[in-house]
Amino acid sequence: MAGKYTSIENLYNNRYLNFYHMDALTDSGRAFDYFFVSRNNSENIRIVTGSDAPEGCVIYPVLKEDPGKIVLIRQYRYPLGRFIYELPAGLIEPGEDPEQAAVRELKEETGYVLEPVHGDEMWNRAFYMGAGFTDESSATVFGYAVGDPGARAPEESESISVLTADRAEVRRILREEQVSLRMAYLCMNFLRADPSDPFAFLKTGE
Fold it and tell me: What is the pLDDT of residue 157?
């Protein structure tokens, strides 16, 4: 059901996130207030453009020298007031595609160089983050992490530690620690992957 609203009002803008009020309609046509946030300005919110282009990317970086390990970060998240475990990720800057953004973000956050691995396009397409409150979408970029984890340059506002985790440590983290949803689901895939061919699933699309 497209067009289940009568108007959208921009309530607040800043550099990273914008707040909107929608005069929404139920299936029966009753009006009600709906609020959502977006990375986009009023002209570029998805309900206006219909675009599926991702605003961000998450990176699935298998350690090339030891494919039985994956590169993770532990980052302080201000809304939670605590550190949580995540995969490296970030916003796509103007002029970048998801792969270019992933290479830049992995280097900045961890010091590793990303060697992207390609496969069936379904693994790289954009998926929505939390469509009940935002129109943001994110693409996943898969690849090998190579190089020196010490040569990194996170933003001043980012409090990040970098670790490489084998399967036993990934299982422990998933059982015991606070974890982002994207990391949880992608690391479930990591636990099933064969270290001798860690990206076999990309080739088959199965």
Answer: 76
